[in-house]
Write a structure and sequence with these properties.
CATH class of one domain: Alpha Beta
CATH architecture of one domain: 3-Layer(aba) Sandwich
Number of strands: 15
Bound molecules: uridine-diphosphate-N-acetylglucosamine
Order of helices and strands: EHEHEHEHHEEHEEHEEEHEEHEEHH
CATH superfamily of one domain: NAD(P)-binding Rossmann-like Domain
Strand order of the largest sheet: 3-2-1-4-5-7-12
Distance between the termini: 37 Å
Number of helices: 11
Largest sheet: 7 strands, parallel
Shape: globular
CATH topology of one domain: Rossmann fold
Radius of gyration: 19 Å
Helix content: 40-55%
């Protein structure tokens, strides 16, 4: 059984990936200090995966402890999720973002070199495209500078990997550029756990429907799109999770490669609200507000390369993702 180290494996995308890995016969070893997660997720994973995974509560920025994990567990592959991810927060406390996201990454990479790991999967983001010239982005669409320190940590993460591969060929590396992951596991046992007031659209929608927030503010309705609101490529988190299994199984022809992880289809904010109303049977209260600084008008993935080379394609609809997100929000209430 292949042992895969999953940093940040108790996080949102990480936990769903752990389930997908166990289903495909891998043994994930989660390293996560739960600073942005909770025992609720570990309990959910236990129910879904039994003893199929291991959990170690450590901070990957502590290099000695991280190295001891590699020493003790015979790690063959690494999927690196552990990072802070709030765009707004990163503007307020940039040093915390650079320290955590970049030192964590560099420690993990050094451990991979030292312990001869064969495969490394990096959580990147469509944020590396910045404000693209076109609406649909390909993997070779030129990168632009991101708008936030968070975005820069992903941008620089990719740069570190490029530099590492330029002169050495340490291990096969795949950067997965996620678009907008949403939804939850259909069981309602794991899902997104935003800390404080959510910044992202989906948790804000479900918390509003649950009565935790009064109304959703739609950030801008004067964009040059059919209904005036921004368009994103929303993808079910279980589809994102499965992309990681395909990434591990991918026989790389090149030592470093990049893949878009989206559906290829854009949806506007108002379309998301309308679809949420249909799947939840509720009428979400919302107000039209000002544009949010830094938001781009429209972006969605071209996924031909992922389909052709990773053998991966998103299978689930936005409706399913919204239904599962709403189910998760209702389950969460029971933990209060
Ligand atoms: C951002 C980042 C992305 C990151 C993701 C997760 C950029 C360009 N994108 O995505 O890299 O991975 O966060 O943290 O940095 N909206 C509202 N009202 C709300 C919340 C959101 O109208 O209360 C709208 C936004 O204006 C946007 C859409 O919903 O048009 C999606 O926003 P959000 O969920 O925050 O994701 P992104 O900004 O696309």
């Amino acid at each position: 059984m292949k042992k895969v180290l999953v940093t940040g494996g108790a996080g949102y995308i990480g936990s769903h990936t752990v389930v997908a890995l166990v289903e495909r016969g891998y043994h994930p070893i989660i390293v996560d200090d739960l600073r942005n997660s909770s025992l609720i997720i570990l309990e959910g994973l236990k129910k879904l995966c039994g003893d199929g995974f291991s959990f170690l509560s450590i901070d990957i920025c502590d290099k000695n402890i991280l190295f001891s994990v590699f020493e003790d567990h015979g790690i063959q592959a690494v999927i690196h999720f552990a990072a802070y991810k709030s765009v707004g927060e990163s503007c307020v406390v940039p040093l915390r973002y650079y320290q955590n996201n970049l030192i964590g990454l560099m420690n993990v990479l050094e451990a991979c070199q030292t312990f001869n790991v064969q495969k490394f999967v990096f959580s990147s983001s469509c944020t590396v495209y910045g404000e693209p010239n076109g609406r649909q982005v390909f993997e070779n669409t030129p990168k632009h500078l991101p708008e936030s320190p968070y975005g820069f940590t992903k941008w620089m993460g990719e740069q570190i990997l490029e530099d590492l591969h330029r002169n050495t060929q340490p291990f096969n590396t795949l950067c997965l550029r996620y678009f907008n992951p949403i939804g939850a596991h259909p069981s309602g046992l794991i899902g997104e756990l935003p800390v404080g007031i959510p910044n992202n659209l989906l948790p804000y929608i479900t918390q509003t429907a649950a009565g935790i927030r009064e109304y959703l503010t739609v950030f801008g309705n004067d964009y040059p799109t059919p209904d005036g609101t921004c368009i994103r490529d929303y993808i079910h988190v279980c589809d994102v999770a499965e992309a990681h299994v395909c990434a591990l199984q991918h026989e790389g022809y090149v030592p470093l490669d990049v893949f878009n992880i989206g559906t290829g289809k854009g949806t506007s904010v108002l379309e998301m609200v309308e679809t949420f109303n249909v799947v939840s049977g509720r009428e979400l209260p919302y107000k039209l507000g000002d544009r949010r600084p830094g938001d781009i008008t429209e972006i969605f993935a071209n996924v031909e390369k992922s389909e052709a080379e990773l053998g991966w394609k998103a299978q689930r609809t936005v409706e399913e993702a919204l239904r599962d997100a709403w189910n998760w929000e209702q389950q969460l209430k029971q933990h209060d």
